[in-house]
Protein: Small ribosomal subunit protein uS3
Organism: Paraburkholderia phytofirmans
Amino acid sequence: MGQKIHPTGFRLAVSRNWASRWYANNNNFAAMLQEDIGVREYLKKKLKNASVGRVVIERPAKNARITIFSSRPGVVIGKKGEDIELLKSELQKRMGVPVHVNIEEIRKPETDAQLIADSITQQLERRIMFRRAMKRAMQNAMRLGAQGIKIMSAGRLNGIEIARTEWYREGRVPLHTLRADIDYATSEAKTTYGIIGVKVWVYKGDTLGRNDAPVVEEVAEEKRPRRNARPGGDRRPRRDGEGGGPAGARRGAPRRAGGAGGDGKTGE
């Protein structure tokens, strides 16, 4: 009870795309997947100060193409491209195939879920109050165009002995609307009291397709007529004897007990 489905996995092939895009047979699939996980962990440690949001790995025809989304591309590239060349050579050793590295800039890091989660965990490790860090991140995201944001922190918050979970939400975050563009990410803060987990949901509006098609406004449904409404607007005239009473009798008027004599007997 109370558990939420992973927003990215729920929307795969509907409004989200995979982070690893390649095909493999049954023999190579596990090894290639493990290789992707190792590459992402290596890049996360290597580019810890570069504010990396996500890494997309593609494998076209015995090559590898890695796209790094970062809010600080200058840190990744380095002076005269030295750092990125070293990074490319290290990745080629790990993957065993020619590697092409592309850098994409994140224009609004305040609305990127992974960067928000990493920022909060870094503040928690510096002993900043978790409520202050969460609310500041929510205010920045809403100010820069997010339609809704929800942040959850779990663990020994403020060093208390009993772990608990606290979450805050601003705006709307429709988790079960498939066309809703929900950016979801997690991060962990390693504090002296233990690990504090942070989850972030950011609602950026509705999309059609895989984050590239615009939203088409829904056409308002025509008002359906009532079942007893007639084209002319007037009700059908009532026929004599309809409704169970004598002709011309008003609804609710008392019925006479007998026939014409009114004594309850007939034919006498």
Observations:
- Residues 212-223 have pLDDT under 50 and may be disordered.
- Residues 109-206 form a domain with the Ribosomal protein S3 C-terminal domain fold (CATH 3.30.1140.32).
- The CA atoms of residues 240 and 248 lie 7 Å apart.
